[in-house]
Amino acid sequence: MTALEGRLEHLDGVPVVVLAGEIDLATIDHAQRLLQEAEEEAAPVMAADLRRVSFIDSTGLRLFVQVHRRAEQAERRFALVRGPANVQRVFQVTKLDERFWFVDEPEELTAG
Amino acid sequence: MITSDDSPALTGRDTQGGTTDRLTPLSSFRTAVLVTDGAGVVTRCNREAEELLGLTAEDAIGRDAREVVSGKIDPAVVESAVAEVREGRAWEGVTVVTRPDGTRSDCRIVLTPVIGSEGIPLGMVGVAVDITESKAADEAVTNLLAAEQSARAEAEEARGRLAFLAEASRVLAKSLDYRATLERVAELATGGLSDYCIVYLAEEHGTIERLAVSGPDRDGDGFARQVTERYAIDPRGGGVAPVIRTGRPAFHPEADAALLAGDVDDPAGMAQELEPLGIRSWMCVPLALRGRIFGAISLVSTGRAYTEADLSLAEELASRAAQSIENARLYQQGLSVASTLQAGLLPPRLPSIPGIEIAAVYQPAGRGTEVGGDFYDVFRVEEDRWAIVIGDVCGKGISAASFTGLVRHAIRAIASHEDRPSTLLRRVNEVIVRDETDQFCTLIYGEYRPSGPGLITFSVAGHPLPLLIGGDGSVTQVGAFGTPLGIFPDPDLDDHEVGLDGDLLVLYTDGLVDESLGGRGEEHLSTLLKRCARQDVSCVIQAVRGPEFSDRDDRAVLAVGRR
Q1: Does the structure's ipTM exceed the value 0.90?
Q2: Nearest 5 degrees, angle CA B411-CA B413-CA B414?
Q3: B483 CB near a chain A CB, below 8 Å?
Q4: Which of B81, B180, B218, B258 is most buried, by CB atoms within 10 Å?
Q5: What phi and psi values does residue B320 have, to the nearest 5 degrees?
Q6: Among residues 73-92 of chain A, which lie with CB inside 8 Å of chain B?
Q7: Residues A62, B463: C-beta atoms closer than 8 Å
């Protein structure tokens, strides 16, 4: 069984989708709903926190690509809070670590 | 071996392994022709160019064009011409060419860059005419312009074909009903490939039914449909019947109404009725799945005559339509489609490549009924050039499978036009990005030349790097990461080379290194593969079949070694 828990939090007005567990085909709808909810706020910056994500497959990757693309089109920024090494590995293999905006802590999004 | 001047150039080799020389007119101009790819490497050199430069086409092809003309043309002239072409502009001028016997000729030279969509250079066509003794320089210029236009038209046609197939794949992927699918095929073909299109279905009891008849807009009342409806098809007659009986296409660049009416119960009557349409050209391709012919598509042109390239395109369309009908059927029956549909996306057996051996394995995920997007392909690009591909399309189900088909076909269609794996992948990326689905894929494209020094040249797009098992038991990653295809218009892609001397190269999809193992998947795989040092490719296949691998995701593995 795979499971994903998540909730939408706010940090100084920045919507942050905090995800915990595995992001794959079985849980993707849940992750997508949460991210959509955050997107609907149309804040200049939004983020997904991957620190407690233990697994991400290509379905998850696609979801982040879509959110990233929509944010760019709307001239907003989408940040990802770095996950554990094996999650980051997926972004390295695809070089998306060079295309997406990654931070270590969500607090970095509100600083300055 | 590409030595004659009627060898294929920028585009020219069809998928059946035959050649279609759509640059033929060039040879009749008595002009020297040198064609390069986007990297400036010579891909074609005609007889006049051989004479002018004092070398054989065999010597010239595969070398940098500047190197080929070095010592024959003033280097300053060459550099300024190359600079223009690199900027995407044509260069024209008269310059001295030193012939092999030392004599000097005045040549008028025109270099024309061939630019693909997104401004990517696909190559350059260089034509030269010796005007030293020619009193007809004006004529030469006219010829050069014609040659340039022909090269351009050819590049644009190739682009149009890809766009058409991308559109066909997209439309077909949406359909889950086979009758609706076939009606769409008819609509797609009318406009893209033909003036009239008829789709036939072979019924169980041996009769042949017309499922869809479509014509141009000016045929608003459905004239063609009304006429054909009045005539029953004779399964023992001519026309479509032999195509369905034998599975071989009918190809008639010059056709008329009588030929087309050869399949009905009253050929003379129908021929007379169809006469006003002014039929020019006709081809008919079978619809087949797993060797069983279930129908055919007839394409009729009232304007231009069909070429071999049109036939290839029609066959490709038929193959996609057949696959999409199969998808629809499986979907409707609610079957577990994974292995069936995946099998349609994998080569039935690996071809034999001189000098190397390849083994492959594909294992679908153990749970769920949806189709995965892992695929591999091994095919001959041209004489002495073989492609090895492994990829993973994000997502599952019919749309993923259809997208996999698009990617595979795009690679096969473009491969012979690009000499470097990274440039090939960039062009595949253009096709996918343009397709505007939200889909992307990761893949490795590698090439091997049996006559070469035993290297595999490859490019990696968002895919786990290949592993090299050394004779000493070391297992190392080779190459560098790149961006997946279908996400960004400007992917990061590089070319890498790896030698196979005594080593085994392993390409795999990430289902093999399930990251939920805590990131130790790759480490685990490396440990397992050590035992294959100095073994053959079958050892790798055995090693990755072990029960310790998770069946959470599909996995595909290709192992390559020297024979």
Answers
A1: no
A2: 65
A3: yes
A4: B81
A5: -70, -40
A6: 84-87, 89-90, 92
A7: no
